[in-house]
Amino acid sequence: MKALASVLTVLFAVIFGLFGTAWVYVYFFINTPETGLYSYVHTLTDQNGDAKYFLELNHYAAVGGGDEMTELIFNYYTDYNMVGVKSYGIQQINGEFYYYDGFDGTYVSIPAKEPGFKMIVDVKSEADIENGVLHGTPYAVVLDGTYVETQSTVNLIKPLENVLKTGFGIIGDLFRKKEDRNAWKYDNNGENIWSTPITDVDYITKSYTFEQFFEMAKMYLTRSSYGYGDYVLPLVELQSYFSLEVFEDGQFKPLQDATFNMSYFSVDVKNYRYGASFAPQSVFGMIGYDPNYNSTGMEINDEYWKYVVDYTLTARDFDYVYSSVYGGYLLIVNPLRLAELSEYKGLNLHIRLDLEDVYLIDYGYNVVGVASYGLFGLRLDSFTVLNGSGQDFNLLSYSLWDTGLKSFSAVGSNVVKASDCFNGAGGVL
């Protein structure tokens, strides 16, 4: 019997394992969303001929410095002619929301948009795409989703009624026949009066707000596995928050096609490791409605920077994190220095890292390489490592991501580079 039981156990395990594998395959590879002809809305073409995503999401994670900030931008056509593109932006920093209206790269502060606000997008059919038409059919994306909120309130009268019923019932039973006693214990539904809840439950239908969609999009990004960098997040489902209206007979009409209403929209993402410190870091040119926002306390010398073309970063411009794996410290860009440099365009940036710099010696930093995404946000011309003592200098995965580094040299160090230290993002060693 034990042998038979063991065989059956193994057999059932195999059957359930095969079933589980089949379910995973069907769910992820077969049971994919039906796209139909109109399922994806990607970009709009603005008045300058530039392509813009309907949704843009910028996030400053504030790892190591600066303030955490998230910005969500909706780009949409001003009317059904689909010529001019406007933007509605929502910014969150330090838990507060700020709202912006933009046109042609210029933003002004505005009150928050209310539910029901319509944003016009361009939806092309497969035939439109094949024929290369500029515009397809105008559709309006409308924030009109609702949800049900449960609210419970304590009914203080109900227990008082039960106490009175119990008191009068007990007294009354003294004068009733035996078979008529205890009737007071039950309500009209035959339930014991003390078993019914003393709370009243109300179901209230509420409209979703832009802030609620903002929080969902932010959570979607921060919980994704894409990491830091610039990329496009596909398949963001909007049907709980928005509906679509099609432009027909000179007006926008609610779309009855349920499949279409489950459309997906791509999101253009910029996810930064460092935090926000200066107003020019924001796509709106201001933070908290302040174009002079500066949370660092550092004074920016505009006159100096006007004449600087080449600028060299040294050991003091970086932070360092200890790695037990590599037995030393890994370099990452200082977020405050990065925020300052981001205000100035056209700089030729160079790194000159002297491993015997008195700054590193004083703090005991034995620098052994560059951390993953350690230089993200910098566009570099050259990187030079000096005075190595024969040890390895490690360039970790993504350490030079999106730097466009043109030249690298190391004196006295054995350079160990990961195959994906650039990961195809530009730059040559």
How does this model look, in words?
The protein is α/β, with parallel strands linked by helices. The protein folds into three domains: 40-144 and 208-272, no CATH class; 148-205, no CATH class; 299-417, no CATH class. 19% of the residues lie in helices and 35% in strands. It has seven helices and 25 strands. It has helices spanning 2-30, 126-131, 157-173, 210-222, 302-306, 335-341, 358-363; strands at residues 40-41, 43-45, 51-53, 55-60, 69-77, 85-93, 96-103, 106-109, 118-123, 137-143, 146-154, 199-207, 229-237, 242-248, 251-254, 264-272, 310-313, 318-323, 328-333, 348-354, 367-370, 380-386, 392-395, 407-410, 414-417. The strands form six sheets. Strands 1, 4, 5, 6, 7, 8, 13 and 16 form an eight-stranded mixed sheet that branches. Strands 18-19-21-23-25 form a five-stranded mixed sheet. It is extended, with a radius of gyration of 31 Å. The chain starts with a helix and ends in a 12-residue tail after the last strand. Residues 1-40 and 424-428 have low confidence and may be disordered.
Question: What are the key terms here?
Answer:
3 domains; alpha/beta; about 35% strand; disordered C terminus; disordered N terminus; about 425 residues; 7 helices
